[in-house]
Amino acid sequence: MHAITIDDPGGPDALVWAEVPDPSPAAGEVVVEVTAAAVNRADVMQRQGHYPPPPGAPPYPGLECSGVISAIGAGVTGHHVGERVCALLSGGGYAEQVAVPAGQLLPIPQQMSVQEAAALPEVACTVWSNVVDIARLRKGETLLVHGGGGGIGTFAIQLGKALGATVLVTAREAKHDQLRVLGADLTIDYTAADFVTETQRATDGRGVDVILDIIGAKYLDRNVAALAPDGRIAIIGLQGGRRGELDLGALMAKRGSVSATTLRARPAADKARIVKGVRERVWPLVDAGAIRPIIDRTFPMAQAPAAHRLMESSDHLGKILLLP
Ligand SMILES: NC(=O)c1ccc[n+]([C@@H]2O[C@H](COP(=O)([O-])OP(=O)(O)OC[C@H]3O[C@@H](n4cnc5c(N)ncnc54)[C@H](OP(=O)(O)O)[C@@H]3O)[C@@H](O)[C@H]2O)c1
Fold it and tell me: Is the dihedral of CA 162, 297, 39, 178 positive or negative?
């Protein structure tokens, strides 16, 4: 088969479409013939040599895909060759085929093409596990989504609205109109306005209940300042640095909490538990049309360097897909 290989980590041209050995399914795995894969920020870090795949994962980038099952490993029940699926991966989506633990498969949502479904598994599992499992967002609460225009952000806006929350987002102004169509109640241009002032104003000085944060160190102080009493900050990205100073007094005064997690490094059993939760609680919302995949552009897999350039420019809105 062909896959995107990274022999010499660095810029986008480090991504090379090359012939590699076909995968075979280990016990508990299936092989998926890939229809589409989606690009995630983590793939950029892997390309640069900063985010090696976890042990046992394919060496090629790609954390989510959709396609058709072409082989079944020992011990797998409830799936068949020819079944259309999408999947959360630990790597290897930028390829013609990928082996994946059966517990990480999701059905193609109703009225959605196999190709479109590639845009969902990683963002659905990340947003669900952080915003609902960990930060326990409830109906009637306020959710602040940093990076509302990204793949994670566009999903988080829709999930927040579907769960009955008020959703406030930070994003560059060019994206605001589309984010309001997705359901954002307030859009804040973080390049021109202070999100603490804006969120305090929008909540009559109370602050926000849950913050989904992709910035990390640079926003830590301001995230605590933006928090409502008993508020929860879920950090999933470090685009603004990994080391910051946390004012524990300020956090205590709010009875606040800060979590920080990464999905890729979780053990397979943990991923299977999250996927099961997404299938039971999020997929019905997708089937009902309350959440849809937001796809900016599609590239042939061999043009993965162009797809990465687009992601690094942040000019995209939602997800970028790759087709083998
Ligand atoms: N921990 C996990 O398990 C996990 C899983 C998946 C993703 N992630 C992380 O989640 C983040 C988003 O991933 P993605 O795939 O959605 O990437 P993406 O599509 O590139 O989205 C990132 C967004 O951040 C916005 N942004 C940049 N600087 C910002 C700032 N200072 N304040 C607010 N927004 C800013 C960019 O848009 P504009 O600047 O144009 O508004 C862009 O839309 C990444 O850091 C990724 O590593 C973590």
Answer: negative
